[in-house]
Specification:
There is one protein chain. This protein has two domains: 9-145, Rossmann fold (3-Layer(aba) Sandwich); 158-318, 2-Layer Sandwich (Alpha-Beta Plaits). Strands 7-8-6-9-10-11 form a six-stranded mixed beta sheet, sandwiched between helices. Strands 2-1-3-4-5 form a five-stranded parallel beta sheet, with helices on both faces. With 320 residues, it is of the alpha/beta class. The two termini are 45 Å apart. The protein is 47% helix and 20% strand.
Amino acid sequence: MDLLPPPITALVLDDNRNTRRKIVSDLEQSGIFHQITEAVDGLDGFKLVSKAPPDLILCDLEMPRIDGLRFLQMIRSKEETKDIPVLILTGRTERALRLKGLSEGANDFLLIPYDPEELIARVKLHLKSKQLEKNLKKRNMELELLTHKDPLTGAFNRRYLSMSLDSEIMRHARTGEALSLLMLDIDHFKNINDSYGHHAGDLVLQRVTKRLTEGLREYDLLARYGGEEFVVVLPSTSPPEAEMVAQRLLQGIRRLAFSDTLAGTTVTVSIGVTSHSGNVVTNAAELLSRADTALYRAKQSGRNRVVTFDNGLCNASATA
């Protein structure tokens, strides 16, 4: 089922009731807007914009309490309203006034009395420009996100992990909430590549990534650390909770079923767990080193198991 497009809204500011009602009537007849609100001056208009930012604003220059220029300054100073298109409708024709309005952030000027068809044409133009700009920003964000993703698995890459882990450690230091980290490695992955080829190895990496993602919360972070190694950042997660997550992920990967050349293959992982809790401040490198030490012990102890790191000691929890 296709989602309906969001409703398009407008705000009309003018202290002259007749002018304001004519503008609203012309906008309503265009059929563009789902909702049109009105205000008699910049103060009331600013309150409405702050509560529910519209898609477009049509504004008079001369109004009581707060005039159009001051209103422009106020909405352009706020992040959530700074990009709303504003059309100024005024009976004044001074060039200096138009330049002042444009410098304060007006998108367009229209003289009163105006041609209703020209008004609607300009409204459509600015709404289209706003949508194009919104689409461009969305596309740029998607492209930026792609630079942080591993192209094969779709997990975040090591560079993004480094930035995010630093942020989580700072947040932990500020809030005191627990922070845990898992480092896992696919057991005997080289044998899969050697026996079935790199295409099969790529498939295993993709399936493992998908299973890991399914077993995590939306705000957990999964990153491909290198080769067949992954790191999971678990915000607000205590050591016992982190070990439970690790065991759940380990079991989930063991249950993966493959077809074709990999039919009957069982994939297992080894997982090292460490946590950052209490008043001891550490850094990303130290946290990763602890997880790596625990992972190494897991592999040395027979693989297919979870090992936790605690105060320099590794406590193994094997899974048969």
